Amino acid sequence: MKKGDWSCLSEQEKTLCYIYFQFYQENPDFSKTETQRKAECMTYLLNKYGFHFGKILDDNYFLNDTCLVSNIGIEQLISALSLFGPIQKIDSVKLSPFYEKVIPTVGRKIREELIEENLIPILDQICTIDYLKNHSSRNINLEEWMKWIPMDISKEKISTKIKLIQKVNEMVHDMD
């Protein structure tokens, strides 16, 4: 197997590489920790809109011991790709027309809104906030959420992140 050779990848690996490229507009290098976190956040966000990688990966997201959203199946897929090195050439994979629109649109909105910020910790915060919001059995106020967020973050920033999630949700709903 030649490092970076597209033809050596499984269909799931190709799909992950393709949607990563569509979402972030950059070729992935899963040997880098930041690419791994970006991919995990991306798959979590797209899962919210019904994009799935297969039975073992669907809806199996949880908060890990560092309060980051994780999925063991996605982590395994990323781990396999980390041995592969930078992906130089990405061919398209067959996706539904809906996801061909949703993936780059959601990615662009996230990138535009977060252009001034360090993307990876902010993505982690957005996913953690969304996870807590959607998986809590009760209403959690901002002070309680702040205990779970992996970085120091103000109430105003949490509110801004929640508003961004709502904007993206509205955009996707309008595409449906």
Describe the structure.
The chain has 176 residues and is mainly alpha-helical. The chain has two domains: 1-102, no CATH class; 115-167. It is built from seven helices and two strands. Strands 1-2 form a two-stranded antiparallel ribbon. Helix 1 (11-24) crosses helix 4 (97-113) and helix 5 (119-135) crosses helix 7 (155-175). The longest helix is centred in the last third of the chain and has 21 residues, at 155-175. The protein is globular and about 50 Å long.
The number of helical runs is 7
| Mean pLDDT level | 81
Termini Cα gap = 40 Å
Alpha-beta content class = mainly alpha
Q: Order the strands across the largest sheet as they lie in space.
A: 1-2
User: What's the alpha carbon Rg, rounded to whole Å?
Assistant: 16 Å
Question: Percent range for helical residues?
Answer: 55-70%
Which outline best applies? globular
Number of domains: 2
Percent strand: under 5%
Order of helices and strands: HHEEHHHHH
How many beta strands in the DSSP annotation? 2
Sheet with the most strands? 2 strands, antiparallel
Which blocks of ≥5 consecutive residues have pLDDT under 50? none
Q: Quick gist of this model?
A:
The chain has 176 residues and is mainly α. It is 57% helix and 3% strand. The protein has 2 domains: 1-102, no CATH class; 115-167.
Protein traits:
single chain; 176 residues; mainly alpha; 2 domains; two-stranded antiparallel ribbon; 7 helices; 57% helix; globular
